[in-house]
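Lab notebook page, bench 4
Experiment: in silico fold of construct C2
Operator: M.H.
Input chain length: 335 residues
Purpose: comparison with the prior construct
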Amino acid sequence: MMIFLTVLKVIGITLLAVIGLGILILCMILFLPVRYRINALFDQNAKKYEGHVDVTWLLKFLHAEVWAEPGEGGRGIGYEVRVAGIRIIPGKEEQDTDDEDTDLPPDYDPVPDGTDLQETTLPAETGEKGTVSECPESESPEPEKDIVDIEKELYDDGYSEESGDEQEPQVKFTDKIRGFFRKTAEALRNLGYTIKRFCDKIKQILLDISYYKNLWNDAETQEVLAYVLDKTGFLWRRIKPRKWKLRLHFGLSDPMTTGEAFGTLCAVGPVFGRHLQVQPEFEDEVLEGDLCIAGHIQLFFPIVIGAKLYFNKKLKRVISRFKRGRRKDIQRQAA
């Protein structure tokens, strides 16, 4: 009995330890911040544009990096993911095996020196004595024309046999006039149908615009919109960058234009404070600078806000009404 209780005790302690470890890992994932850092560098005169994104978690236990450094001396464009300092993405590149199917040396020549290659020709298909057999073409004599057919060909050019006058046209003038008016009436009828369909489409568009306008001004839609703006604003305050800095060195072709642009930036400078540094250049035309953005995100807040928005019934109802449109919404209400 004591052995059974001891086994149960060990199993219980193990289960509690596993559950506690799982809860600890889950709390670490949700509450430990994911830190990010973005660096950008641009120089228009030197045609140099670089970017770098660095994401870390748990004191760089998980480290992801993306970079774009074209040009000479740069690493090009790439990315990598490291766990505990070990690179797992991308892994080791596989070697190409297309050119390594055989182990022959590079200087191997399948034809030894001094050997003449003679062209071989295949014999053509011949008859009994080596000549190509030809089939004589069958000559079919043309049928002789009857005298009546000859006379018909001579007098089919628009002349009668007796008088030589031109034959009367097969289509009368009145038939042509009648056909012209018939085609004109049909074209006008089709034009009327086209104008009617166009007017119906315009009417439907105006009704749809009125429907979406009324739906936008609906009290439930406005309530849902205020709720979404409140939650997204709260989320932005949690994930927005904590530090950012922009250094700009610019100069335009006209010094007066450069002064006006610098004055505009100085006017909005107090809004950004020390995060924005501007240096004008009145002698040369230049545009260069660098940008640095740093912050952190706790996954708990995006998950909670996303769950609240996803399970909100009013939000689902408003979205479904926007997707259904006017006709389906009227049919749904009538049913």
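Observations: Residues 147 and 263 are 105 Å apart (CA to CA). Strands lie at 34-43, 48-57, 62-69, 76-83, 86-89, 243-251, 276-280, 286-297.
Next step: discuss at group meeting.
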